[in-house]
Amino acid sequence: MKAITFVTQKGGSGKSTLCISMAVAAQEAGHSVCILEMDRQATVSDWAEHREAQSPEVAQVEASQLDDVMERLRASDFDFVFIDTPGVDSPGSLAAIRAADLCVIPCRPTPADLRAFRPTLAAIYRLEKRFAFVLNQTPPRSYRVRDAADGLAVLGILPDVNIVMRNDHQDALGMGQGVTEYNPTGQAAAEIRRLWAWVARRWQGVSLVQAA
Ligand SMILES: Nc1ncnc2c1ncn2[C@@H]1O[C@H](COP(=O)(O)OP(=O)(O)O)[C@@H](O)[C@H]1O
Ligand SMILES: [Mg+2]
To answer: Which of 169, 187, 192, 193 to mutate to test the pocket of ligand 1 (most atoms within 8 A of CB)?
Structure first.
């Protein structure tokens, strides 16, 4: 079982959105997955309440419970656990980084987002965790995206796909769906599938940047 934690202090960067749609994409790719929600804002639980399908399972977890929950999950049949975190530097975020096999840092191509993940990155380094950035809510094409991608690629690993700002992401969540369920043939779905494939490939012997 592998744990993937979506983390960065910046609220609104897309932790919950990517966590949900990546979990659904992983499930569609044939994996058994669950989602742990450490954010009292409860975006994921709220999504699950609107959802018709029974899976993936969603559980709200406090920071103090995470170690025990992870131990039980390791003895279970889940292939991947997706962990959503709050948008602040909190015990929950730290515990979720500690539990992670991979930390995904969503980042909009804005100066504020590009600055805001630094404390998160420091914690990831301290705990010597593997991580990847994901550029999210990008315009389809812009020099801003190129500049941001260049900057992030210097700091760590960046997938070969950016997640463009598309209404499908917002509409899917409102319907209790992942974006690949909401509009399977849309571009948002294609980008999320590519991102999941990129993450899945990382477990197949290709190394991710490991914080030194
Ligand atoms: N790629 C995207 N395209 C369009 N809207 C997005 C995208 N990613 C996130 N959003 C929207 O941005 C808002 C914040 O995203 P959210 O996942 O809740 O961020 P966080 O969990 O980091 O606070 C939500 O309204 C969400 O629907
Ligand atoms: Mg959130």
So the answer is: 169
